[in-house]
C-alpha cells in the first residue's frame, strides 16, 4: 500500500502471471515471519505523522477541487454537457475518496502514526464521514487479519462449502446471473455486510457492526462500538440538514453517488484480494497464521494503484505486516518477493475481467479428491 512509484513487472512476466492459475503452495513455508521481516529495510516500519498527514491533505485538496468545480460550474452547463460532467465528477471524487477510506483503514491498523489516540481520532472522523462505523470495523477487520484463510474464523468473504450453497446458485451460474450477482455485490455488498454480516463469518444470532452487544464484540469493545454509532449518526444528521438546505438531488449528486462508488471499490478490492482459483482456504486441522496470510493476491489497478495508496498491489505485504505505513509497502513488497518465491501471488488480469472470472470460477470450496490430497485444504470450484 505505498503511494510511491509502482513496482516494475516485466511485460513477459506480467502476461504469464496474469493468465497463470498455478496454485499457491500449501506446504509449510521454508521461511519464517522474522526472516521475511529481516529482508525489509528497517525504515519501512517507521511511521511519520507528517508524511501520513501529507497524503491525507493531498487527497483533501483533490476532493475540494472536484467539489468546487462541480458546485460552481456544473449548473451553468447546457444539459447535454451536464450529463457528461456529473459522471466524470462522480468517478473522480469516488476514486479519491476511496483513497481517504484507505487512510482511515491505516488508522485502524495503527499504521498512521506512533500515537494510538491520533490514529483513532483521525480514523473515526474519516470513516464516519463515509458512513463507516470506525471502531466496529476496526475490530472485525483486525480479526480478519488474525484469521485470514480460515474457513471457521475468518471475518469477511468466507467462501461456502459445496454443501452450503443455496438452491438458486445454479440459476445464477451463467453470464446474466453473474452480472446480476456482481452488480448487487458492488452496490449493496458493503451495507449488507455492516448491517447483517453478509459474506462474513457465521455467528450465532445477528452479527451487526452497529450492535455493541452483538456476537462480534467483547465487553471491552462495546463502549467504542457506541462511539462508532454516534459518529455515523452525527454525519447522517448532518446530511439530513444538508438535504433540508440544498435539496435531496444536490446531496445525492455531490455526496451520495461518490459514496456508492467508494463502497463499490471497497468491495471489489477486498473481494479480489481474497478470491482467486489459485488461493487455498484451510479448516482448523490445517490452518496456521503464516499460510493464511500468504493466501492473498496482489492485483494491478493501473493508475488507481496510486490513487488507492497501493492497497491494491501490496496486499500480501500488508497482511504480513499490517502496521507498516502504506508509503513503505511498495519497497517492502519488492524486498520480500525473493524470499516468498512461489508463495507470493500476483495477478495482472484487468480487474474488470477478473471480477467476472472469479465470480464464474469461485462459487464454493472443497478439498481435492484422492489419497494424497490434504483434506483440510479447500480450493475454489464452480461445477454445480
UniProtKB/TrEMBL annotation:
<dbReference type="InterPro" id="IPR012171">
    <property type="entry name" value="Fatty_acid_desaturase"/>
</dbReference>
<keyword id="KW-0444">Lipid biosynthesis</keyword>
<comment type="pathway">
    <text>Lipid metabolism; polyunsaturated fatty acid biosynthesis.</text>
</comment>
<keyword id="KW-1133">Transmembrane helix</keyword>
<feature type="transmembrane region" description="Helical">
    <location>
        <begin position="55"/>
        <end position="74"/>
    </location>
</feature>
<keyword id="KW-0560">Oxidoreductase</keyword>
<keyword id="KW-0812">Transmembrane</keyword>
<feature type="region of interest" description="Disordered">
    <location>
        <begin position="1"/>
        <end position="28"/>
    </location>
</feature>
<dbReference type="Pfam" id="PF11960">
    <property type="entry name" value="DUF3474"/>
</dbReference>
<keyword id="KW-0275">Fatty acid biosynthesis</keyword>
<feature type="domain" description="Fatty acid desaturase">
    <location>
        <begin position="86"/>
        <end position="344"/>
    </location>
</feature>
<dbReference type="Pfam" id="PF00487">
    <property type="entry name" value="FA_desaturase"/>
</dbReference>
<feature type="transmembrane region" description="Helical">
    <location>
        <begin position="249"/>
        <end position="272"/>
    </location>
</feature>
<comment type="similarity">
    <text>Belongs to the fatty acid desaturase type 1 family.</text>
</comment>
<dbReference type="InterPro" id="IPR021863">
    <property type="entry name" value="FAS_N"/>
</dbReference>
<dbReference type="InterPro" id="IPR005804">
    <property type="entry name" value="FA_desaturase_dom"/>
</dbReference>
<keyword id="KW-0443">Lipid metabolism</keyword>
<dbReference type="GO" id="GO:0006636">
    <property type="term" value="P:unsaturated fatty acid biosynthetic process"/>
</dbReference>
<keyword id="KW-0472">Membrane</keyword>
<keyword id="KW-0276">Fatty acid metabolism</keyword>
<feature type="domain" description="Fatty acid desaturase N-terminal">
    <location>
        <begin position="22"/>
        <end position="63"/>
    </location>
</feature>
<dbReference type="GO" id="GO:0016717">
    <property type="term" value="F:oxidoreductase activity, acting on paired donors, with oxidation of a pair of donors resulting in the reduction of molecular oxygen to two molecules of water"/>
</dbReference>
<protein>
    <recommendedName>
        <fullName>Fatty acid desaturase domain-containing protein</fullName>
    </recommendedName>
</protein>
<feature type="transmembrane region" description="Helical">
    <location>
        <begin position="86"/>
        <end position="104"/>
    </location>
</feature>
<dbReference type="GO" id="GO:0016020">
    <property type="term" value="C:membrane"/>
</dbReference>
Amino acid at each position: 500500500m505505498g503511494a510511491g512509484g509502482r513496482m516494475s513487472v516485466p511485460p513477459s512476466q506480467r502476461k504469464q502471471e496474469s493468465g497463470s492459475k498455478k496454485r499457491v503452495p500449501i506446504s509449510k513455508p521454508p521461511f519464517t515471519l522474522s526472516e521475511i521481516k529481516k529482508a525489509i529495510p528497517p525504515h519501512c516500519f517507521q511511521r511519520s505523522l507528517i508524511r501520513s498527514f501529507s497524503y491525507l491533505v493531498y487527497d483533501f485538496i483533490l476532493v475540494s477541487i472536484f467539489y468546487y468545480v462541480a458546485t460552481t460550474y456544473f449548473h451553468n452547463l447546457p444539459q447535454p454537457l451536464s450529463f457528461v460532467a456529473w459522471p466524470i465528477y462522480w468517478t473522480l471524487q469516488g476514486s479519491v475518496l476511496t483513497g481517504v477510506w484507505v487512510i482511515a483503514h491505516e488508522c485502524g491498523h495503527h499504521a498512521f502514526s506512533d500515537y494510538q489516540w491520533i490514529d483513532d481520532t483521525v480514523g473515526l472522523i474519516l470513516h464516519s464521514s463515509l458512513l463507516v462505523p470506525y471502531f466496529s470495523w476496526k475490530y472485525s477487520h483486525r480479526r480478519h487479519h488474525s484469521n485470514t484463510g480460515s474457513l471457521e474464523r475468518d471475518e469477511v468473504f468466507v467462501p461456502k462449502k459445496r454443501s452450503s450453497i443455496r438452491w438458486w446458485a445454479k440459476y445464477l451460474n451463467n453470464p446474466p446471473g453473474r452480472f446480476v450477482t456482481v452488480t448487487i455485490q458492488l452496490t449493496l455488498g458493503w451495507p449488507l455486510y455492516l448491517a447483517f454480516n453478509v459474506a462474513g463469518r457465521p455467528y450465532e444470532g445477528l452479527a451487526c457492526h452497529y450492535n455493541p452487544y452483538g456476537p462480534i464484540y467483547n465487553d471491552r469493545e462495546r463502549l467504542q462500538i457506541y462511539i462508532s454509532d454516534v459518529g455515523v449518526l452525527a454525519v447522517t444528521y448532518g446530511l439530513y440538514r444538508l438535504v433540508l438546505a440544498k435539496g435531496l438531488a444536490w446531496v445525492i449528486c455531490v455526496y451520495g453517488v461518490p459514496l456508492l462508488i467508494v463502497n463499490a471499490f471497497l468491495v471489489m478490492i477486498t473481494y479480489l484480494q481474497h478470491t482467486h482459483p489459485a488461493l487455498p482456504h484451510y479448516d482448523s486441522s490445517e490452518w496456521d497464521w503464516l499460510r493464511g496470510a500468504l493466501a492473498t493476491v496482489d492485483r494491478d489497478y493501473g493508475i488507481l494503484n496510486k490513487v488507492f495508496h497501493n492497497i491494491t498491489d501490496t496486499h500480501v505485504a500488508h497482511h504480513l505486516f499490517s502496521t507498516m505505513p502504506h508509503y513503505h509497502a511498495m519497497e517492502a513488497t519488492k524486498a520480500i518477493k525473493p524470499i516468498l518465491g512461489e508463495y507470493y501471488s500476483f495477478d495482472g488480469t484487468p480487474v474488470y475481467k477478473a471480477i467476472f472470472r472469479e465470480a464464474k470460477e469461485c462459487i464454493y470450496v472443497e478439498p481435492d479428491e484422492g489419497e494424497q490430497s490434504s483434506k483440510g485444504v479447500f480450493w475454489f470450484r464452480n461445477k454445480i
